[in-house]
């Protein structure tokens, strides 16, 4: 199978356009933008800024959380961005594990997500759909939004059997995955896999400050996720017990959800840094942290499962350097270019 296209995933920030322009220059296929308002800036403002601030790179909501916005708000946002940069947007929807946990809520149910995606698709098609017991329709006259139907691709971010079943039921235009699928996904019209890590430079090891700051933020999300799902298992995670004890001391019990995901995928908190120091060489086994040859081997492995796109979630204090190093390691410029219909469907 062909090697996957190389994309980047970033949180919204004041520098998002600078990073998107660098990704465009380096040959990245797409910029995916995260959606977690308690942690990052606004998803749709960031996407609109990228649309106006770049020339050709594609971009996506990766992933949008339905419960944060009325379906009409999302449909209008998609329409606005499509008007700014026709055909360059993809919107993937997920149940909002981190985004909702930071608000003290559980992730959405897949049935709720399915209803929402159908509502947004109907609105973009120009149809009437019932929302909150009332019929709704995009009423924008010419000049205020693109003519309907708006064929912007809608993806899902499935996790587990229910997620994949929902994605198939919705007949989505693509899937965005948070972990390797463990099965061939070439049946899907398009697919993307989020990965993290850093390109290890000569002479670096687990104590190197640059490596820790670049790979550490996503390594630390393992502590966050294990705490939320299997808190007792943290004792078996390198550095997990130290992280847990510091997190529990950071906030009173009623506010604990405000402490768990601090810095998520962006920067290291003091407790993250201390736990990573205790974890030692384990950080070298997190994500795609390795030299260029190891990263290229990983790329071939996921390509063999049918993954069409890899999303590098760059982190640390020097995002521009991370983008350049990963592009050089993977040959991003060689694999970029106009995607095929299977890689970027026109929407339904």
TrEMBL record:
Gene3D superfamilies: Luciferase-like domain (3.20.20.30). The keyword Oxidoreductase applies. It comes from the Bacteria. Keywords: Oxidoreductase. Residues 13-189 form the Luciferase-like domain. Pfam families: Bac_luciferase. Transmembrane segments: none annotated. This is LLM class flavin-dependent oxidoreductase.
């Amino acid at each position: 199978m062909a090697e996957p296209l190389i994309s980047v995933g970033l949180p919204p920030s004041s520098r998002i356009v600078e990073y998107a322009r660098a990704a465009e220059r380096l040959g990245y296929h797409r910029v995916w933008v995260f959606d977690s308002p308690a942690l990052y800036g606004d998803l749709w403002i960031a996407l609109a800024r990228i649309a106006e601030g770049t020339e050709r790179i594609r971009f996506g909501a990766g992933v949008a959380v339905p419960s944060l916005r009325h379906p009409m708000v999302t449909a209008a946002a998609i329409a606005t961005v499509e008007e700014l940069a026709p055909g360059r947007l993809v919107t993937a929807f997920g149940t909002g594990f981190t985004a909702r946990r930071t608000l003290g809520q559980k992730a959405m149910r897949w049935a709720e997500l399915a209803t929402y995606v159908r509502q947004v698709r109907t609105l973009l098609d120009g149809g009437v759909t019932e929302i909150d017991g009332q019929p709704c329709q995009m009423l924008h006259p010419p000049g205020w939004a693109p003519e309907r139907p708006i064929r912007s691709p809608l993806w899902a971010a499935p996790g587990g059997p229910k997620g994949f079943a929902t994605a198939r039921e919705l007949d989505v235009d693509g899937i965005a995955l948070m972990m390797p699928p463990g099965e061939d996904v070439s049946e899907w019209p398009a697919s993307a896999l989020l990965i993290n890590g850093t390109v290890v430079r000569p002479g670096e090891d687990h104590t190197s400050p640059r490596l820790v700051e670049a790979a550490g933020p996503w390594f630390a999300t393992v502590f966050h996720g294990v705490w939320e799902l299997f808190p007792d298992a943290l004792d078996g995670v390198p550095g997990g017990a130290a992280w847990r004890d510091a997190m529990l001391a950071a906030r009173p019990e009623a506010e604990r959800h405000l402490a768990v995901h601090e810095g998520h995928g962006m920067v290291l908190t003091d407790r993250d840094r201390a736990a990573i120091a205790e974890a030692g060489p384990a950080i070298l086994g997190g994500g795609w942290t390795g030299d260029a040859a190891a990263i290229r081997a990983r790329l071939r492995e996921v390509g063999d499962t049918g993954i069409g796109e890899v999303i590098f979630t760059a982190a640390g204090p020097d995002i521009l350097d991370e983008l350049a190093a990963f592009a050089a390691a993977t040959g991003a410029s060689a694999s970029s270019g106009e995607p095929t219909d299977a890689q970027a469907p026109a929407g339904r």
